[in-house]
Amino acid sequence: MLLLEEGYQLHFADNGPDALSKAMKVVPDLILLDVMMPGMDGFEVCRRLRTHQILAEVPILMLTALNDRKSRLQGITAGADDFISKPFDLMELKMRVQSIMRLNRYRRLLVERVRFRWVVDNAEEGYLIVDEEGIIVYANPRARFYFGLSESDMSMVKFSFLELAQGHYHCEPQEAWANWPAPPIGNVPRYLVRPETENARSFWLQVDILNLPAGPGVIGTLRLRDVTDRMNTLRDMRSFNASITHKLLTPLVHMTGNLELLAKYYRTEMSNPDIAELFEVAHSGSLRLKQEINEIIQYTRNLPLLTKGEEAFHLEALASTVEALAAELTLDKVHASCEGCAADTRAVLSNRATTLILTELLENAQKFHPQHTPTVEVVASCQTPGELCLRVANDGPALSPEQLVQVWTPYYQAEKHFTGEVLGMGLGLTMVSTLVWSVGGTCRIYNRSPGPGVEVELKLPLA
Question: CA angle at residue 280 from 279 to 282, to 5 degrees?
């Protein structure tokens, strides 16, 4: 009667099992639990509640005629939050219930805040809170990444969002930003654009003011979304189709065009040198077409077989394998070494898969080096128990941040205009990453410091 007057919704149970069953259905905000009950006493009910995944944190107020220290300690051990002895004062019970409910509400809010903060801190989108003067009062890690800020920067310096945005990006379209921070006329999207450079394509962020409750002195929460892919999708599709068409049709044109000339004129109007030149071009085109097609077939059909059914790669064969591959590619400045690895160390990948990985990395180093004569260091180390770290470093050109992210993507090539003239189909590093990931390994690629060049780091479990 006392609690009904306070507006609480009440559910009743006559015994311990009944209490457990009903609690699982309603998930209450507070349980008033008597100690002295037939069959299953309050201590046992409390212990079972505390082991339940959902009910474990529901506050429990135990009502007991027992007023001795031992019983209270037993209740605390069982998981009770508070006690009140019978006969109890009605006002005391009312105040105890109010206090526990209030504390539980605060606890839940705190838990939700921690969860929300975790989600925001790990979000793929940037989030900013800006005050009435346009100063950033909070930025999640992704937003700080977009503006090149560290957490310590935020604590020491006050940053104006608009000034920061204009310092790193172009605010487009300019008409939409003219009345910032008011909503743009016609709800035209606002973008922050980093123009393309010699080595990287343009980068696009869409800026939205979220319709969320704002605290005192806050104009709102901003969301920064990377929409580069969306903005470039149509262009990339056209470039992709053009590139694939170019890669496959160009060698075919070389073959068919020259063979047609040979068929038509070789008996009457051509000298032996002319015939030889046409044959050479046709032959070169056929080899190129074969290579492109084989790369696609190997990636789509043969790749799953490369990690199965073969003997694991012995690290003692690393130097000889690298030396043979370098000779095959006519690379003079390639060196392989092992650091801290036992002679019988074996990587979990097969001989064939490991050789394919090394081939792809050496070919890439040669392909993108300005003179096609890279200096390559292949270093294997076993500093972490149960793990082989294989690093392949070259002295070719550095990559842009976008290229470092995209290199593992199928058909992607580190080429600004994607003309299709770069040899290969852009499947080499994708094949490397797929092989490594398939056995539980990891891949990283980063620019060397000091440069020039990039380094590929592969971590593989040991067999």
Answer: 65
